[in-house]
Design a protein that fits this description.
Elements lengths: L6 H5 L1 H4 L6 H25 L7 H15 L1 H6 L1 H5 L3 H11 L1 H13 L2 H10 L1 H11 L7 H18 L8 H24 L6 H21 L12 H30 L1 H8 L2 H13 L5 H17 L12
Length: 318
């Protein structure tokens, strides 16, 4: 054994902690990795149409890999997962499970990575606000209302060039991505209604989703080409969808929120559409159109404004 001299570290605790990252730095690092994973999801949604995998294959990897990796931890949480109210569970499973995944993949195949990366996360604040208003909450005002309006204008800027003349394929893809965004908003609302840690939330989402996609494949409702798929495609989607989106993104985003707070995390997370546009150029060979150059900044600015919370008023005599 090698003896470790801790005298110097004990005498100089500041020197021992000098190399530790601050909680803010840790949170920012986790959030930046999460943004990169979200961007990779948008790129993979577009790349799926050109790969040897089918949507059902990608879904099996997306929901199956986290179950395998987290199996022991999920077993310990089985009672808490089973105790979740059916209404909240349905919101989570439908909002981020098979319906969301297939909608995002299909929409990405019909449009571009920029559309996936902008419309799906960008429209979530608007849909969440609509759900909250429908449940009796006050409508957004001031800065938040302006942000939601910017998001809507940004999405309109993305699709305007496909309206005249009409491009039914792209418009159908954009509509499908709007459905995916609405489903993700439902998932966001559902997460607020459950008392689970990030690992338990992943289990609640992936267990029924994997069962549903497996049943659809076994009954022939959804075709599969997993047995004939290229090994490189399987490895890519296993890393991006299974480990990245399915496992790491959920854990890292929850960690970032604890370190930075929800508001700062949401603002930095709004950079995801920009990251998708920039990465799509070298990875997929997509060139940003004028509509993308106008729409993406509008959506990003709108998300930043929509996630701002008014500062509490301080009395003059405080």
């Amino acid at each position: 054994m090698v003896a470790i001299d801790t005298t110097a570290a004990a005498a100089h605790p500041a020197a021992a902690g000098r190399h530790r990252l601050s909680p803010q730095t840790q949170g920012m690092a986790a959030l930046l990795v999460t943004v990169a994973i979200w961007a990779a999801f948008a790129l993979s949604a577009r790349a799926l149409s050109a790969s040897s995998l089918l949507p059902a294959d990608a879904a099996l990897l997306r929901f199956g890999v986290p179950l395998v990796v987290l199996a022991p931890a999920l077993w310990r949480r089985r009672h808490r997962i089973a105790a979740v109210r059916p209404g909240a569970a349905i919101k989570i499973v439908c909002g981020a499970g098979v319906p969301f995944f297939l909608a995002a993949m299909h929409g990405g195949a019909l449009t571009s990575a920029a559309f996936v990366g902008s419309i799906v996360p960008g429209m979530v604040p608007l849909f969440v606000s609509a759900l909250m208003v429908a449940r009796g909450h006050r409508a957004p005002r001031g800065t938040q209302a302006a942000g939601l309006a910017l998001i809507a204008v940004g999405v309109a800027a993305l699709v305007w060039r496909y309206v005249v003349p009409v491009d039914t394929g792209v418009l159908a893809g954009a509509g499908t991505l709007l459905v995916a965004s609405g489903l993700w908003a439902l998932y966001t609302v559902g997460l607020k209604e459950v008392d689970l840690d990030p690992v338990g939330s992943i289990g609640l989402l992936c267990l029924p989703s994997f069962a549903v996609i497996g049943l659809l494949v076994l009954t022939g409702v959804l075709p599969t080409g997993l047995a004939r798929a290229a090994g490189s495609d399987i490895a890519l989607f296993l890393v991006v969808q299974g480990l990245g989106v399915g496992l790491c993104a959920g854990l890292l985003y929850a960690f970032a929120i604890r370190r930075l707070g929800a508001e700062r995390s949401s603002v930095v997370g709004s950079l995801s559409p920009v990251a998708v546009v920039l990465l799509a150029i070298p990875v997929l060979g997509e060139s940003p159109t004028l509509a993308v150059l106008v729409g993406v900044p509008l959506i990003t600015a709108g998300v930043v404004l929509a996630n701002r919370r008014p500062r509490p008023k301080v009395p003059a005599d405080a």
